[in-house]
Write a structure and sequence with these properties.
Radius of gyration: 20 Å
Number of strands: 0
Distance between the termini: 38 Å
Strand content: under 5%
Length: 173
């Protein structure tokens, strides 16, 4: 059992590091592309063809990958003020129910995101020769990661290896 726990922790660290790098790279790319598009249009007086389409797709992909990242780091939108004052047993039940709901949401997002990505197979963006599936697949990838993170945490809570208090974001106070 310890070997499996060690493997999961190692994989978790790697996935988190990859998500860190991916989110930073996508945000940096978005920033660079938008700044270049504005510079080209207003300074060079020469608009780029991809000025709206490519950044819009990158932003959409960043949203789904970012949602998975925020789920992993416990920084997603939540109502933790009530959870903080609950008794330990109730907190455990509420956290498990929350993880089950989030896991279901992530699974649905992965499923329907995969269907959406597959429906654009073979198509490319109008302004740039990049596959639309690359960007549409971010919904499926983000949903799959959310589902996996929640499932691992749920199992961890149920077997007693994860304390529900460790899943509450740090207080601002």
């Amino acid at each position: 059992m310890e070997g499996l726990a060690s493997l999961i922790e190692t994989l978790d660290r790697w996935v988190t590091a990859v998500l860190d790098a991916l989110v930073i790279a996508m945000a940096g790319l978005l920033l660079a592309l938008l700044n270049w598009a504005v510079f080209a249009r207003f300074v060079l007086n020469d608009s780029v063809s991809w000025g709206e389409e490519l950044p819009a797709y990158i932003l959409a992909a960043l949203t789904f990958i970012g949602a998975a990242y925020l789920t992993r780091t416990n920084e997603h939108l939540g109502f933790d003020a009530v959870l903080r004052i609950l008794p330990s047993g109730t907190k455990r039940v509420v956290t498990c129910l929350n993880l089950i709901l989030m896991d279901g949401f992530g699974a649905l997002m992965a499923w329907y995101g995969g269907i959406a990505a597959a429906s654009f197979w073979g198509r490319t963006l109008i302004s740039v020769d990049l596959p639309v599936t690359l960007f549409r697949g971010a919904m499926a990838a983000g949903g799959l990661l959310i589902a996996l993170f929640c499932a691992v945490r749920l199992v961890g809570i149920l077997i007693g290896r994860v304390d529900p208090d460790s899943l509450i974001p740090e207080s601002d106070a």
